Structures are given as structure tokens and as C-alpha cells.
Amino acid sequence: MPASAAPDARPAWGPPPAVTLLVPVVVSFLVQVPAAIGIAVWTAAPAWAAALQVALAVAGALVLLGARRAPGPTVAVVAALALADLLLTPDAGPPFIALAFAIVSGVARGALVWTGVSVGAAWIAALVGGTLAGLDWHPFRIAVTTAALAVCVGIGWFVRVRRARLAAYRVESQQRRQRAEQQERVRIARELHDVIGHALSQIHVQASVGLHLMDRDPEQARTALSVIKASSKDALEEVRSVLGVIREGEAPLSPQAELAQLPRLVDGARAPGLELELDDRLTERPARAVQFAAYRIAQEALTNIVRHAEASHGLVRVERDGETLALTVDDDGRGPAGTADTDLTEGRGVLGMRERAALLGGEVEISERPGGGTRVVARLPWSHL
């Protein structure tokens, strides 16, 4: 973007834009204008020369008002005014500090070419014109002035780099916040999918049982309705916990599921024609986060058995293998290749299981079970820091 078309954007740091724009104007005006009047009086300059000196001092300060919209042309105009002040007015008094502000502003706002060309041309013209006009160009004065101009460029470059770094930090912070929000949305979606999917599967199965046995076996139908009531109550509590965190970061209304709740999970998934068995070989429990992930993986695997597998028998086994918790869920149903439903192989449920394991540094494998059916194996680190 050309320097003269630099955007009128709020800086990424520092005081409000109005302050950064007006302070150089005010300071330049208060330093240059009284000094120009005082020098004109002290040197008894002709009226036209005094008026010219004061006019240049006022113009140099006011031109700085365009530094934000057009930093490049502002540097060029102020440099020309400073050159005129040097060559056409008495060689005495304070420096033309509006030029210093213009250089800093031009470099900070990216008008590097404008600043370099304008200041370089004005400085060469001052050396040549001053020599021709008989000004006393002492080498020390030339060195000090050159050093002062270089310092102004350095200050402008520092401000530019500082702004760029803070702007990059702001963008990076926003990206991190967006990634965190996306991860939280994925986590919430995963929780709701597992909770609601499992509960609705249980409710569907038990409602079918109740309707089928309503007349023939009222007691069994009553049992199915009790399971529906318990499943819906548990699901409602878990959904409320998730929604509580979404609303205000509230603590869960119920504790996170643990491996100790696997017996109730397996019992709730049983249905006529589907026998489920739990083989718990653990003598101690892993970290809470590992238990919660294992419980959710088992929950999703059982939901897939109920919904898709058309199995008659299933087995959930948990055991410790060194520093790994091994969770295995087997069924004798159709197997991964026996269903057109992608939930068994690549759907959101399976994706959720793998994401839970990956977050802890573990893995989930889904394969054909020897003898037919599906085998889900989750390996999670025993201790999670």
C-alpha cells in the first residue's frame, strides 16, 4: 500500500489516535512559533522576513495534522518548509522540530521511501544551498544534524516494529481464542452426542420392549419403563451439566462418570435378545480423566451395538496392561463391514471415541472380531498429567 494511502486505523498500542496526532502539532507550535517571533524581534528582521519566519513555523506545525492520512506527503512538505526556514530566515534559534515529528511518524506508518527521499533531498539541498548562500556549515554542526536525523529515523523504526509485533500478538491471541472456542464447541458436541445418543438408544429399545410386552408380561413392561425413566433422568442431568458449563462455567451438577458406573451402564443397555457381560479385571482405578474417557468410549461402543450390530451377545472388558488401561468391547453382530451405517466405522460417534483417546495420548482401534462381529479396543495411559 502506498504510504500516502496508509489506513486510518487505531494503533495496536499506546494512547488514543487523537493524542498521538495532536501532541506533535501542539508541541511544534509552542516551540517554533514563539521562537520565530522572539528571533525576529531580537534580530530586528524586516517585516517581510519576520512574517515569513512565523508563517513557516505555523505551517510546519499545522501540516502535521495530515500525518495519519498521508504520512509520506506530510514528510515531504515539512522537509520543504524546514529547508525554507533554514535558507530564508535568520540562522539562529531552535531546530525545526516539526521535521523530527514528521520523520518519526512517516517511518512508523510505513512511508519509508517518502521519508528517505524527502529528508535526503532536503539535506543535500541544505548543504549545497547553505554553502552557496554563505552559511557557516561547520563540520560538527553537519555531524550533529545528521545524527539527529538518524535518531529520528531510528525512533520511527522502533515504533513501527513495536506496532507490528503487538499487532501480530493481537492476531495470534485472537486465533488462539478462536481455536479454544472451536475445541470447546467440539467437546460440547461430543458430550451431547454421547449422552443423548446413548440415552435415546436405550429409550428406543426399552420402549419397544414395553410396547411388545404390555399385554403379555406387564411386569416386564414395567421394568422397561423403569429403565426408560432412569436413562432419561441420567441423560437430563448430564445435559444440564454441559449446559451449565456453556452458560456461565458452572461446576457440573453431577460428578463425571467413572469406571465404577460401568455395571449400571451395561445393565441399562441390555435388551431382549441382547445379552451384555462386564469383565472388570481392575484392582485399582486410573486417573479421573482416564476413567471418564473410558466410560464414554464404552458408552458409545454399547450404543453402536444396540443401534447397528444386531448382536445377541456383547462383552465389555477393562484391565490394566502395564501403564495402559485397556478397554475392549466385543459383539457377535454383523461387524464393521456388515452395515451400511457409517457410525460404526467413520461416523461422529467413532470420531468422538478417537478424539477422547487422542486427547489423553491414547488410541482406539475398531476391527473385525475373530469369529464375527466387531471389536473396539481403547488403550489409554494409566496416569494422565
List keywords for this structure.
385 residues, alpha+beta, 5 strands, disordered N terminus
Order of helices and strands: HHHHHHHHEHEEHEE
| Spatial sequence of strands, sheet with the most strands | 1-2-3-5-4
**Radius of gyration, CA atoms, in whole angstroms:** 39 Å
The fraction of residues assigned to DSSP E strands is 5-15%
Question: In summary, what is this structure?
Answer:
63% of the residues lie in helices and 10% in strands. It is α+β, with helices and mostly antiparallel strands. It is rod-shaped.
Could you describe the 3D structure shown?
By secondary structure, the chain is α+β, with helices and mostly antiparallel strands. 63% of the residues lie in helices and 10% in strands. It has ten helices and five strands; from the N terminus they run ααααααααβαββαββ. Strand 4 (363-368) and strand 5 (374-381) form a beta hairpin. Helix 1 runs antiparallel to helix 2 (47-63), helix 4 runs parallel beside helix 6 and helix 8 (262-269) packs parallel to helix 9.
List the SSEs and their pairings.
Blueprint: H1 17-42, H2 47-63, H3 71-88, H4 97-108, H5 112-132, H6 139-213, H7 218-248, H8 262-269, E1 275-280, H9 288-309, E2 313-321, E3 324-331, H10 348-359, E4 363-368, E5 374-381
Parallel strand pairs: 1-2
Antiparallel strand pairs: 2-3, 3-5, 4-5
